[in-house]
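To assess whether ligand presence alters the predicted conformation, the chain was also submitted together with magnesium ion. Input:
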Amino acid sequence: MKVGFLGLPGSGKTTLFNVVTGREPDPSEIGRSEARLAVVKVPDERAERVAQIYDSAKATQPEITFADLAALHTGDEHTRRDDSLTKIAGDADAFALVIQGFGTMDHRGGPLDPGSDLESLLLEMTVTDLAIVEGRLRRLEDELKSSRDKLSPERDLLQRVERNLGDGGPVREMSLTPDEERMLRGFNLLTSKPLLVVFNVSDGDLRARTCTGACQLAEQAGLTWLPVSAALEQELAQLDEETQAEFLAEYDLDAVARDRFVRACYTLLDVITFFTANRHEARAWTISAGTTAREAARKVHSDLYEGFIRAEVIPFAKLDELGSIAACKEAGCVRLEGKEYVVQDGDIMEVRFSR
Ligand SMILES: Nc1nc2c(ncn2[C@@H]2O[C@H](COP(=O)(O)OP(=O)(O)OP(=O)(O)O)[C@@H](O)[C@H]2O)c(=O)[nH]1
Ligand SMILES: [Mg+2]
């Protein structure tokens, strides 16, 4: 799972990225254009328990990758098309849109206006998707002349997407069948991915849990939003736990931005965790809710996907309660599932496959 930080220049992407991933600021990286990646462990105490029962040498926690992406330019600033948003965004599974809410001036020296920044970023994403869909539709018309009906479902779907985007609607809000979702996946459309709006606000706004009206805009657009103060959190990270706790209490926050942010990403991404375990390692894997057993097996290794026969599944709750695999077998809690089985949060899966 990869979450990309998108935003206008100077909105605080890198500061927030450092806070969330626990990295030290590096002045040499200012103004660079390539993405920086960092993997963050998301502690899940079930991994330790699985390791204990399977007598595994180690327990590996679930991970989430964050990408500090290059700054985005909108409107008249957006001149160079090779800096296209799709290229910047890469293969992220979701985006955190970082909006500047601190200070009085924006990156161009104009008055700070988080609402207008949010609107122009959302528009930029929609316009980018629209260009991709229209390009594909043009090519399809030619291909349809030679191969007729085979491609017409794709055309019909893309026309629906085009109309939806044209009305300003993000793809993530369309109701699509699993087949349609599969068809669209390859286009990597920006508005099809979950989006979290992060308002990087001043201390005062953090206390008030607001962002000068812009948060209402996010709500109207049906988006989840989170107020943080990246600069404050950077200072917080240098303090000992006790002083940190005092600070958090003063701002009436239940956790540091890192934890609040990772939690919000998990909810937003609608992900679940499954486990694999053997003598060497008990490992937690993060997948989207609704993933089938065969697709989940692909996360572990492509051989497991290719040669998938079936999966032996034990739910974590049963394993935890009964305390051993033998006891689970005896109680009839080890199930055999086929490739279409929808993996459940906490499943321990052993895949049977042919080479
Ligand atoms: N006061 C205040 N300043 C901040 C905050 N977050 C970031 N800054 C400052 O704003 C400037 C830009 O922050 P960055 O984190 O580099 O922003 P960015 O979005 O990564 O910038 P680009 O990568 O150049 O687009 C830096 O000088 C930060 O110290 C904040 O919450 N409050
Ligand atoms: Mg930066």
